[in-house]
């Protein structure tokens, strides 16, 4: 029974990594660069949700907001922040320096945004962990002797529903076809009439939405937020993305769950100090055996998503 409980815990933890790993997959799969602001958007949503629920709007414009409303606003802030990143890391630099997707400029500039946003949050709210004022009722239920929190179940269902909807969007919709065309060849997509400047922001909207949802769900499930909360989740999500396969959305789902399972079982049997060794050891093992990941393709940009 203890093992089954640990498996349940692994799935619930893995659902957080899945959401962030899918966000990484979108930018590296379509735009071919690693967006370092993704962990920061995750953290920003959690911290803004806490600040609004605990203190209210800035400058004394309101008292503390109900936590569901605070979290909705937090997700919207994450999306807006993601669009700001798109405007300056991709569109502006591409217009000024040519096809920036072939250079390290977007990667380095996104790293700059990561540091700026994270330090602004530290200045505004301090560096300490904060307790999120979420639902006060005991939301833990027992199912067949296994204990599961209702928000975690909702989170897992929501994550799978979002990933399924995203997969359908990419395969069946006009926007999805445009995104896949950009992923294959941006120049050819432009020649064929795809408006890159209108389609690319969709990637960043989806990225902000995924990170925002992951951040607020983490706040509800674990009841704690901090300016550093994105660091560990971001690295684990990258590991999950690589293990599952670069450019594969469902590979990111599998990779995130595998990393969650690895982390939970390692803590259970060997202690928390060995988690990083286990996760990154697994990553290296997968790369040695199957460099493209479990469900990935041989070439990023070809046959992706």
Automatic annotation (TrEMBL):
Domain of life from the UniProt record: Bacteria
Annotated GO biological process: amino acid transport
Localization annotation: Cell membrane
GO terms for MF: transmembrane transporter activity
Presence of the UniProt keyword Cell membrane in the record: yes
Keyword field contains Disulfide bond: no
Name of the molecule in the record: Branched-chain amino acid ABC transporter permease
Organism the protein comes from: Jiella endophytica
């Amino acid at each position: 029974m203890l093992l089954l409980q640990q498996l349940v815990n692994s799935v619930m933890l893995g659902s957080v990594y899945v959401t962030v790993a899918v966000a990484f997959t979108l930018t590296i799969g379509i735009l071919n660069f690693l967006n370092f602001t993704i962990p920061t958007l995750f953290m920003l949503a959690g911290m803004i949700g806490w600040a609004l629920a605990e203190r209210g709007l800035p400058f004394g414009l309101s008292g503390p907001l109900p936590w569901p409303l605070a979290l909705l606003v937090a997700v919207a802030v994450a999306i807006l922040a993601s669009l700001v990143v798109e405007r300056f890391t991709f569109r502006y630099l591409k217009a000024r320096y040519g096809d920036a997707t072939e250079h390290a400029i977007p990667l380095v500039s996104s790293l700059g945004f990561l540091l700026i946003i994270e330090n602004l949050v530290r200045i505004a709210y301090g560096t300490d962990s904060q307790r999120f004022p979420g639902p006060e009722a005991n939301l833990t239920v027992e199912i067949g002797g296994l204990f599961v929190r209702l928000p975690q179940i909702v989170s897992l269902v929501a994550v799978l529903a979002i990933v399924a909807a995203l997969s359908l969007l990419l395969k069946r919709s006009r926007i999805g076809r445009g995104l896949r065309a950009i992923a294959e060849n941006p120049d050819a997509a432009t020649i064929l009439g795809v408006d890159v400047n209108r389609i690319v922001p969709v990637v960043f909207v989806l990225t902000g939405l995924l990170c925002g949802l992951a951040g607020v769900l983490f706040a509800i499930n674990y009841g704690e937020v901090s300016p550093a909360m994105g660091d560990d989740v971001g690295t684990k999500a990258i590991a999950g993305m690589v293990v599952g396969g670069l450019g594969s959305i469902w590979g990111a789902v599998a990779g995130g769950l595998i990393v969650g399972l690895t982390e939970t079982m390692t803590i259970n049997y060997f202690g928390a100090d060995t988690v990083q060794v286990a996760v990154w050891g697994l990553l290296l093992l997968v790369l040695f055996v199957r460099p493209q990941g479990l469900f990935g393709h041989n070439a990023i940009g070809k046959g992706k998503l």
